[in-house]
Task: inverse folding
């Protein structure tokens, strides 16, 4: 209603101003438009055009002011809906072994946290909803579809997630199955699955089928792939061949992140910002922009058009013609003898 009231007020004030302007122009018509006292025919529509342009400009600006900029609207959705990122994180005791990072100075869990933090810093977090699934002997959802980065960082850094599970062998496939169940209700091709593990004790069968919502799977390996660490009666190292095989079974990609971060091209789907969709204001913003553009164009163009094509009489050129006509011809007696001017004057 504010836009309507502002438009009506602008229309009334502009119409009143145009009426006063027309009255004043009639008083000085011959001075402004020449001996005929009439402008060109098309100028009769100028007052109506100016009133309409001011009304369109007022409505457009008031509407844009009410809608507000999209950057501060938290209720707007990206085109196609929110994208989802599911982090399946290995929290087994082997992830506490210190053989990761440059110089093997980090534990595998610390390296996984560093990799995930770097990933989160390079994605469009305002358009991505994040979930975390922790797995050891079983799999449990820790964070489900959140946009709060502090919650995600707290889950990655400070929570002793391994205490939520019984002691036993790592059930990595159970973590993938739980991530698939979590992503099943989401839109097709809207989810990226990231699995972070050292690849220790992955079974050869029982691979779960991913739902249609998971567009891509990225398997991240941490830990030294050459030198193992002794735990639970065996040498534990990053099993590159098994993780690569797992990526192939999931139709995804494997990346060894023990010393390098994930390349940005692998995160292209999550890092690109999508246009925002406002279902409540669909078309209204565009119409307001068109009204502002047309109104401004008309108001700016009318003075130029009136100056060059407002009337057929041009004061400068007509005065020159009048002076030239008043001068005598070159072959006249006055032109041959300019001194006759004085004689004629006093004759």
Result:
């Amino acid at each position: 209603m504010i836009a309507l009231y502002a438009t009506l007020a602008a229309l009334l004030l502009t119409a009143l101003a145009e009426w006063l302007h027309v009255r004043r122009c009639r008083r000085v018509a011959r001075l402004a438009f020449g001996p005929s006292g009439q402008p060109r025919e098309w100028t009769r529509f100028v007052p109506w055009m100016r009133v309409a342009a001011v009304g369109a400009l007022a409505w457009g600006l008031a509407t844009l002011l009410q809608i507000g900029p999209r950057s501060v609207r938290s209720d707007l959705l990206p085109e196609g809906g929110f994208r989802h990122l599911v982090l399946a994180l290995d929290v087994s005791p082997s992830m506490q072994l210190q053989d990761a990072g440059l110089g093997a100075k980090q534990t595998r869990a610390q390296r996984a946290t560093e990799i995930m933090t770097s990933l989160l810093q390079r994605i469009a977090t305002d358009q991505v909803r994040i979930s975390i699934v922790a797995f050891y002997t079983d799999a449990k959802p820790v964070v489900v579809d959140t946009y709060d980065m502090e919650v995600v960082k707290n889950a990655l850094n400070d929570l002793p997630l391994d205490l939520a599970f019984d002691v036993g062998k790592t059930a990595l496939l159970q973590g993938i199955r739980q991530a698939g169940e979590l992503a099943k209700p989401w839109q097709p091709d809207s989810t990226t699955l990231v699995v972070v593990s050292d690849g220790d004790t992955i079974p050869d069968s029982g691979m779960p089928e991913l739902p249609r919502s998971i567009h891509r799977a990225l398997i991240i390996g941490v830990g030294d792939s050459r030198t193992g660490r002794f735990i639970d009666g065996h040498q534990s190292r990053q099993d590159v061949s098994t993780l690569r095989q797992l990526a192939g079974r999931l139709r995804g990609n494997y990346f060894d992140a023990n010393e390098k971060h994930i390349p940005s091209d692998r995160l292209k789907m999550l890092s690109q910002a999508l246009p925002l969709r406002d279902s409540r204001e669909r078309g209204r913003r565009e119409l307001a922009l068109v009204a502002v553009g047309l109104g401004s164009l008309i108001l700016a163009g009318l003075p130029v058009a009136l100056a060059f094509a407002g009337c057929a009489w041009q004061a400068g050129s007509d005065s020159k013609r009048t002076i030239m006509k008043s001068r005598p011809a070159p072959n006249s007696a006055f032109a041959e003898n300019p001194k006759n001017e004085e004689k004629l004057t006093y004759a």
